[in-house]
Write a structure and sequence with these properties.
2 copies of one chain form a homodimer. With 155 residues, chain A is mainly alpha-helical. Chain A has 6 helices and 2 strands, in the order ααααββαα. Chain A has helices at 16-39, 43-54, 60-67, 71-84, 105-126, 131-148, and strands spanning 87-91, 99-103. Chain A binds a DNA duplex (30 and 30 nucleotides) through residues 42, 59-61, 70-76, 78-79, 95-99.
DNA sequence: CTGATTTAGTTTCATATGTAACTATTTGGC
DNA sequence: GCCAAATAGTTACATATGAAACTAAATCAG
């Protein structure tokens, strides 16, 4: 009896939330480092570039929904990108509160470098998995995400 | 041709580092909220409790290694736990720089509540997976961790 | 032994982040 | 139309975090 009820133990290394956090942080740090070095972008700015490139004219609120960022983070990332000259903002005609965001010419060219670089990073990382394993990982992560997010079994 | 080379797109939702980050943050937030509410502990303090309970007399440096925390974070978490009366520090006899950390009586009782609570959280979360899926998830995460960390194929 | 180097841990400082308050605009009840 | 409530986004403030400098103790070369 290595583990009696009166001597509870927790092996952190086997604790899923811990393992997920360490893995995610390791990968995020790698990526953050690359985007900072290559383009002077933070992860948040990079996410905003990604969705704005994908959907020109998108609003800050929509960006928040698509990137899992809160509105303050979006606001700051957008401000930084405008500062860098990668993004421009027009105020919507129908709704004066809403802003419409577009990549500038320079922003577009950065975007076009960013996307293949991201894809290549992902490819290198997932190269250790077979295609079936990748599919399976996605499936398992989706199950967990559904369980962990509001609306899941614990809420 | 929905995706020609001259119009690269990146669907953030399908981008593994993004999905991992969102999943990890969702789970971490849930847990952080519980530990804060129940015991007034941060995630870092909680991790320190976990390894100190597991290995009484452990040093701050060792805690850092086991918890993937840097030494500043460990130092702050330990200071907070001593403040709370959950931890006590003795200076090592053999090495005056090294501290030896122990749970206090109260800390021990908190630890004994913390562990089952963590295990129960994990069980609830992973209840959406079959035992085989849990094993598989662990295996896939380990492969990714090996690829992403220093020493992996990209370093 | 003695001074240079390394190591454990803390403190400092600059930056990042989250919450709440705020501004501007729109919407909806009447 | 007009005021109350809701919404988009920004700003301010308080706290968290990380890098680098620092302190104290141990080790190592000579």
């Amino acid at each position: 009896m290595a583990d009696t009820p009166d001597h509870p133990r927790l092996r952190l290394r086997e604790f899923l939330p811990y393992r997920l956090s360490v893995l995610s942080n390791t990968i995020s740090r790698r990526i953050a480092e690359i985007y900072d070095r290559e383009f002077g972008l933070t992860i948040w700015q990079w996410r905003v570039m990604a969705v704005t490139g994908d959907t020109p004219g998108i609003s800050a609120t929509e960006i928040g929904q698509r990137t899992a960022m809160d509105k303050v983070a979006v606001s700051r990332a957008v401000a930084g990108l405008i500062e860098l000259g990668y993004l421009e903002r027009k105020s919507s005609d129908e709704d004066g509160r809403r802003s419409q965001l577009y990549l500038t010419r320079i922003g577009q060219s950065v975007y076009e470098q960013i996307v293949p670089l991201a894809q290549s990073e992902e490819r290198i990382l997932t190269a250790v998995l077979t295609p079936e394993e990748r599919t399976e990982l996605t499936r398992l992560m989706e199950k967990l995400a559904a369980a962990a997010s509001p609306g899941g079994p614990l809420w």
